Amino acid sequence: MRCNINKQLEHWTGEAGHEYIERNDFADYKLEQGVSVFKRILKGLEFDSLLEVGANIGLNLWYISEWAKGLNQEKLLYAVEPYQEAYKVLTSQDKFKWAGAFNGDGYKLPFFDVSIDIVMTHTVLIHVAPENLKEMTDEIVRVSKKYIICSEYFSDKPETVNYRGKEELLFKRDFGKFYLDNYPNLKCVNYGFIWQGEFPVFPNFNWWVFKKQ
Fold first, then answer.
1. Strand, coil or helix: what is 69?
2. Per-residue pLDDT tens for 137-151?
3. What are the structural domains of the chain?
4. C-alpha to C-alpha distance for 63 and 69, rounded to whole angstroms
5. pTM check: above 0.85
């Protein structure tokens, strides 16, 4: 098991992680779309704190910060990011304030049980090998106080997809069903689909909001 975990982490903390940063930046033209997407996902949720697991340079947290400003609210935003270079960009940017940022991975989150209102992943679980997936989601569920947001690529059955010419680095499934099958204390309170045709700065992805019972 640990060998597979290491393979995934080595991929995303090496050349692939650098390539991902090269494809992403805090360009202003992205902001309106990003705010609109998270306005849809976060609609009706009452929370003070949010953690993104695998935050990369922090684009999603920027969108959420700006969404909160539009409501005259201030949220405590936290990030965990395994890639050192992305973590440096995240912690040196001036687009939003973060309450805490940690250079680490989702297999051992540096937070107490039920300590963060929302714990979120965005196209992160798709890069976790199936045999390691529950190890990460166990941590996500442990830390969440109220909600879990899962936004990932969807497939009605588990499948491995070639990722930029490499094998065993992208795994699609019905992540909503995975959470409900493995955590009976969760209830799905909302879900949807973000279409790239409407929001070109995002890939196509499905999202779910789970509430802890």
1. helix
2. 999 999 999 999 999
3. 2-212 (3.40.50.150)
4. 10
5. yes
